[in-house]
Design a protein that fits this description.
This protein is α+β, with helices and mostly antiparallel strands and 134 residues long. A two-stranded antiparallel sheet has the order 1-4. It has a two-stranded antiparallel ribbon with strand order 2-3. A two-stranded antiparallel ribbon has the order 5-6. Strand 2 and strand 3 form a beta hairpin. The mean pLDDT is 91. The structure holds protoporphyrin IX containing FE. The site of protoporphyrin IX containing FE (HEM) has 16 residues, from helix 2.
Length: 134
């Protein structure tokens, strides 16, 4: 869910009358899984972003992980760099195995309900420190 907005003028969206001053909350997850815009929307397919002009900067309304408009996330750059740096450090310094020895392709990617898209089933991993020979 994005931050709540207040409607500045009366309008109609998807057949619904939205009165002036009505509080509106945008469901970014619903936008990002709308079948009219996304093929097989609930599958994790990172390659769907290859060779496309769709990006996350708030002008493609079917993909708004950082929101859109004047209240969109002011720290997109910091957020992206932090996530990339963290992931790169974890992958560079450790080898990873699933704690129960199962196949990574069988990981259940269901999301829990809530404001943030956390995994429904926790991921239990065993890191092994990767120390290259000096
Ligand atoms: C990958 C990381 C991040 C994601 C996915 C993210 C996502 C979002 C989203 C969806 C919103 C609501 C936008 C809207 O309603 O249109 C938001 C707002 C905001 N974010 Fe982020 N964010 C991230 C990282 C950060 C970081 C690192 C900071 C600060 C250090 C930050 C600070 C804020 C602030 C202050 C707002 C409120 C803006 C306002 O009320 O005008 N975010 N973010």
């Amino acid at each position: 869910m994005l931050l709540p907005r207040v409607c500045w003028e009366q309008c109609k969206i998807g057949g619904y009358d939205i009165p002036i001053k009505m509080k509106v909350i945008i469901n970014a997850w619903a936008c990002s899984t709308y079948p009219e815009f996304w093929e097989d929307p609930e599958s994790f397919r990172a390659e769907r972003f290859e060779n496309t002009s769709v990006d996350f900067k708030g002008t493609n309304y079917h993909y708004i992980p950082f929101g859109s408009g004047r209240r969109m996330c002011p720290d997109i750059t910091f957020g992206l760099v932090s996530a990339e740096l963290f992931l790169a450090q974890m992958l560079y310094n450790f080898d990873w195995k699933l704690a129960d020895g199962s196949n990574p392709l069988d990981i259940d990617m269901m999301e829990a309900e809530g404001t943030f898209a956390a995994k429904k089933i926790h991921l239990h991993l065993i890191p092994t420190s990767y120390a290259p020979n000096n």
